[in-house]
Each structure stands twice: as C-alpha cells, then as structure tokens.
Design goal:
CATH class of the largest domain in chain B: Alpha Beta
Number of strands of chain B: 13
Number of strands of chain A: 12
Number of helices of chain B: 9
Helix content of chain A: 25-40%
CATH topology of the largest domain in chain A: SH3 type barrels
Strand content of chain A: 15-25%
CATH topology of the largest domain in chain B: Alpha-Beta Plaits
Strand order of the largest sheet of chain B: 8-7-6-5-9
CATH class of the largest domain in chain A: Mainly Beta
Structural class of chain B: alpha+beta
Oligomer: heterodimer
Helix content of chain B: 25-40%
Largest interface: A-B, 126 and 129 residues
Distance between the termini of chain B: 66 Å
Distance between the termini of chain A: 65 Å
Order of helices and strands of chain B: HEHHEEHHEHEEEEEEHEEHEH
Structural class of chain A: alpha+beta
Shape of chain A: elongated
C-alpha cells in the first residue's frame, strides 16, 4: 500500500468517524484529500476499492440515508461499532495473555495473534515479554489448515480428495464443516459428510491436494451443543476395557507397567502385569514391539496376534 | 507487520497506543510494533498529515518529539483501537482456552479472567472461536514441577524412561525450556549425565523433583528451531528403508520420512533417518507382516533374530 493511499484511507476513516450524518460519495470526494477531482469514473472505482479494503480490515462502514425522503445512499462509521471497548488487565491476566499469544507462534494464526496484541497494546495493556522458558505451541503444518479453518468459520461447504488408511487412491468428499480440532498434535475436520449423510471426522494430513470451498457463507447449519473434541476422541480410540495379562522382564516394558492395575512377581527376573486395552490389534502391536521382554498370557486373541506378527518376521526373507 | 503493506492497520493502532503513553521512547514504540525506528519515523511523518476534513492546523493529528520521545496530543477521533476481527479474536480465544484446559501448563484462574475479558471486548467476533478446539496433552503432576523449576531457575532430578532402549535412568538436568510439539509436552534441558542437550517427553518422566541448586546450562547453547518438529534428522544418521503394506500406511503419517514412494494398491516404500535404530527394531516387530526392513541389511537381520527369540519365549510360556 503506497503512502499516498494509506494517507487517503486514514483521512477517510477520520472523516467518517467524525460525521453523524451519512455522507454522500460527492461529499466524501470533497472532504477527503487524494480523490480525483476531474475524472468521475476513476474516482468511483477508487472509492469502491477503498471501501472494500476498509471492510477487509474490519472497519464497520455503515450505509444509509439521512431521511426517508432522501434516496441517495451515504456512508458513516458508528464509533460504537468501530472501537474496541475499554478494558484493563491485571498483571497476571496480561502475563496469561502473553503466554497464550506464543501458542500460535510460527503457525498460520501467528499474524492474527500479532495484530490482536497490537490492538490490545494500543488499548493500554502491557503484555510482558516473559522469557520464562515456557514455550507451549500449537503446530499447524498441514497445508490445508487455513482453508479448512476459513470454511469452518465462514460456514461454507468443502470439497476435497481424501485418502483412507489401507486403501489405495483417494475419494472425493463433500463436507459441511462444523469445526477443526487439534488432537494429539494433529488437525481434524469435523462435519457432516454429504455423500454418506452422517457426521464424519477427517484427518487433515490425509487430504489430497487442496480443498475447495463451495456455496454461500453461512450455508452450513451447525447442530447445537456440539462437542467437537469428543467426536474426534471417539473416532481416535475408545476407553480401555478388556483385561489382559502380560509377563514382562523385570526393569523393562515401562509403558505397560505404568498402565498396570496389578503387578506380581513371577519367578526370577519376571513379573506379570494386569492391564486393560481397547483395540486388540493395536494392543498386539504394542506388545510385539517389546520382543522377548513381553509375553501375552491372556487373552488368547491378542496372544495369537502377537505370535502371528513375530512368525511373519522370523522366517528368512525368501520364504515370505 | 513491517513494510508499508500493513501500514493502515498499524497506524490505526499506533495513534491510540501513543495517546495512552505520552513521552514513550522511539525504541520502545518501535519494539512494541515490531518495526524499525526508521519505519516508525515514516509512519509518524504520515500521521501528522492526516486529520479532519478541512485539514487546518487544529484539525490534524498532533505529535511532538522531545529528545528521543514521542507525545501524541490530538488523535482527531481515532483515539481507540479498532475492534478485533474474527481471526484475531479466534487466535486469542482459542489460545487462552487451550491454556486454561491443559492441566499444568498455567494457573487457570488468571487465564480464565483474561479469556472472559477478551471475549467480552470482542463481542460477536469471538463466537466463531467455538469452531476451533485444541487438545494439548497436559499432565497434572510432572508439568507443574517442571514449570516451577523453570520459573525459579532451579535444576531438576528426573527418573526417565527411554523408549528406544526400554530402560529407566536417573539424571540431574538444567532446564532450558518447556515446549509442546505434536500436542505433547517436552522439556529441553542440559543433561549432566549425557553432557548434552536432551529433549525429555514429560509423559515418560516417572519421577521428578526440584533440586536445591540453580539451573546452570552451559553458556552459548544453540537455540533450536522446533517449529518443524522435535525430531530433526542429522546427516550422520542411519538411513532406514521400510516396505509398508496398506495396513501400515500410518507409519508414513507418523514419522518424518525423507521419501515416500507409492507402489500402488496402497503399498509404500519409505526412507527415514534416525540416530538410533532401537526404536525401528521395535516398530518392525509391532508391524509384523505389514512392514519389512529393506535396509540396512544388519537391521533386517536383527529384527529377524528379535522375532525368533520372542517366539521362543512364547513357546516356553503357555497362555493362562
């Protein structure tokens, strides 16, 4: 934005904030320096672009006319809609804000965080730099994150290619987005799948290519009382319920021990731990990873799964 | 926010900022806005050309310089910052909610007060923030102790489980910072035992206590950029190639791979680099028939032997 243009736009904002009456475009042309005095069409184009830019910045331009008999549309900015309300922060609140602002660092929302902080500083709030070594971060490296977020916020339908684990290629999906959720460091899109006619959760890293937003803003109707995180959590895994007994070598399998409901000695250098799992195949994956340090005693189903994994690996290459 | 591109929103914040802080030094204002002093001077030179229609002396924004300080005495109506946009409100509200909901990351009470104030000031712009939820892995016992040590600059004693080797060790560390990545909390610290910087996954800390001695990490430790993930491969790492069946496609999602080659039908060959191969052995064991180590050949042979030893343990140990 050239300095001339910035100057014109700032003068326009000041002018429209100062007026109570709606100002017609001709009145604006006379009051604000920088508009072309000779070429009507060039002026109109310039003014349209300026309006557009101010609205993009969030400046609430009001249109209306001064009386019922006046049919020419005019413009003004209502102070009440323009300005951030007065607010003060206690020192500990400002510190919390400063820490929160660092969460999005180097993520797509870092820019919005920075400009929000500027506005709060302009309102008189001092956010401490706070080099306490606390650097919690919300990452968002998925390339479609910004488009999915924008569609969820605007309430627009999305279309994208989606790859399902264990199946080749990708399928076309059409979704009414309800929101985006970061769960265990990954972003998910939650919404209504228009083809399957049911709520679905999509992992952003499995979206192939780009996403297309379709339809009008606000076209997506969100059901009331949504718990987006709970929907993702349900899809990502259930509560562990099924009991298992695993014989583990002393001093090994820390992760299994941590979840154990009981640990009993079982001969020299071994213990038997009791714990619960949700998905038998995933539990077999975990136990198999410990090799000879962990032997599933029960249930038989998991034991067989682990033995199947190990047998596939124990054979020489040519035999597979 | 540098250059002239974002100049108008910056100016609209700069005027109320200066109005709140008569006599603010150039350096402070420039730092608060993240711009150079030269850029700030250009901004100010533009500001005092702007004002109410007519642009007589008393209509213009008035700024005085004294030494290296700035005093703005007449804002001509742009005396308050602009309201937060939807993106700005969303960035702050989601970050504050995440802080409040993650156990151990911050004292939730001031966070919730700050959140309430931001939501009230943002008004309707804060509503779409409900469409974004972030679940960070917090933890109520280890995290507060680590935070306390960082805030007071104390060293820590950790009992820590190393997943790759499946062993628990005791060590004294000098905390550098607490970070979250991929949704989980980590402590970056100087490990006195290993005499190097190590990253500790807080979920694997078995016990922690603050030592009665100050944290003294060696001076001049390089600051690492963790925005691209915690596990950054180094050139001297071992290159591992794995063949994955469709059921193991998640491996390519989960671990940072140098190359992913699609073989069709959902089968893949992935290449990754790692400083230690112990975890790859365990990964291969848990994958069973769905994954196979192609290279290095010694690693493939190790996995085969691991599987045989484990199978022997199963035949010795009947199910119960």
């Amino acid at each position: 934005m050239a300095a001339k243009k910035t100057e014109r736009l700032l003068n326009l904002v000041i002018c429209l904030l100062a007026t109570r009456r709606y100002l017609t475009v001709q009145q604006i042309r006379e009051a604000v320096p920088g508009y072309d005095a000779d070429n009507e069409e060039a002026f109109r184009r310039m003014f349209e672009r300026d309006k557009e830019e101010l609205r993009e910045l969030g400046v609430p331009l009001e249109t209306g006319s001064n009386s019922n008999w006046d049919d020419e549309v005019g413009y003004r900015i209502a102070r009440r809609d323009y300005q951030l309300p007065e607010l003060t922060f206690e020192r500990d609140e400002a510190a919390a804000l400063g820490l929160a602002a660092r969460l999005w660092q180097s993520a797509p929302l870092a820019g919005a965080t920075g400009s929000a902080l500027l506005k709060l500083r302009a309102a008189g709030i001092e956010t401490p730099e706070g080099a306490t070594g606390l650097e919690p971060r919300i990452g968002a490296t998925e390339p479609t994150f910004e488009d999915c977020l924008a569609a969820a916020v605007a309430g627009r339908r999305l279309r994208f290619g989606y790859r399902t684990a264990g199946r080749p290629g990708s399928e076309d999906r059409q979704v009414e987005p309800w929101g985006v959720v970061s769960w265990h460091g990954r972003w998910y899109l939650v919404g209504h799948d228009l083809v399957r006619e049911a709520p679905r959760v999509f992992r952003l890293s499995r979206i192939v290519g780009s996403v297309q937003a379709e339809g009008e803003d606000g076209a997506v109707v969100r059901p009331p009382n949504l718990d987006l995180t709970a929907m993702v959590a349900r899809m990502a895994g259930d509560q562990p319920r099924t009991p298992a007994r695993v014989r583990v070598r002393s001093g090994s399998c820390w992760e299994l021990r941590r979840e154990a409901t009981a640990v009993e000695p079982d001969g020299d250098g071994w213990e038997v731990v009791e714990l619960r799992f949700s998905d038998p195949e995933r539990f077999a994956d975990r136990v198999a990873g410990y090799g000879a340090d962990a032997v599933v005693l029960a249930p038989e189903e998991v034991r067989a799964s682990v033995v199947r994994r190990l047998s596939a690996l124990a054979e020489p290459e040519v035999a597979r | 926010m540098s250059g002239s591109l974002d100049q108008l929103p910056r100016l609209l914040a700069l005027v109320p900022y200066l109005l709140k802080r008569p006599g603010v030094p150039f350096a402070t204002a420039a730092a608060d806005f993240g711009i150079t002093e030269d850029r700030l001077r250009k901004d100010l030179n533009l500001l005092w050309l702007c004002g109410l229609p007519g642009h007589y002396p008393g209509d213009l924004i008035e700024i005085e310089f004294e030494g290296d300080t700035i005093t703005l005495s007449d804002a001509q109506g742009v005396d308050r910052p602009l309201r937060l946009t939807v993106d700005e409100a969303l960035a702050l509200v989601v970050a504050l909610r995440t802080l409040a909901e993650t156990p151990g990351l911050a004292d939730p009470e001031p966070v919730l007060r700050a959140l309430a104030k931001v939501e009230e000031a943002a008004g309707a712009a804060a509503l779409p923030a409900a469409r974004v939820q972030v679940a960070l892995e917090g933890e109520g016992t280890v995290l507060p102790v680590v935070r306390d040590a960082l805030e007071r600059g104390q060293a820590l004693h950790l009992t820590y489980w190393t997943a790759g080797r499946d062993e628990t060790t005791d060590r004294d560390v000098d905390p550098v910072r607490l970070v979250t990545a991929e949704g989980q909390a980590y402590l970056e610290a100087w490990c006195r035992r290993a005499e190097g910087v190590r990253v500790f996954h807080l979920g694997r800390v078995e016990a922690v206590r603050v030592l009665d001695e100050p944290s003294r990490p060696p001076a001049g430790l390089p600051s690492r950029d963790l925005s691209q993930g915690l596990f950054q491969p180094a050139p001297e790492d071992t290159v591992v190639t794995l063949a994955l069946e469709p059921g193991a496609a998640w491996v390519a999602d989960f671990y940072p791979c140098d190359a992913v080659e699609e073989l069709g039908d959902g089968r893949q060959v992935v290449t990754l680099r790692t400083s230690g191969t112990a975890w790859v052995r365990r990964l291969a064991l848990s994958l069973g028939a769905s994954g196979r180590v192609l290279s290095p050949p010694e690693l493939a042979q190790q996995v085969r032997e691991d599987a045989r030893t484990a199978l022997a343990a199963y035949s010795e140990q009947p199910s119960t």
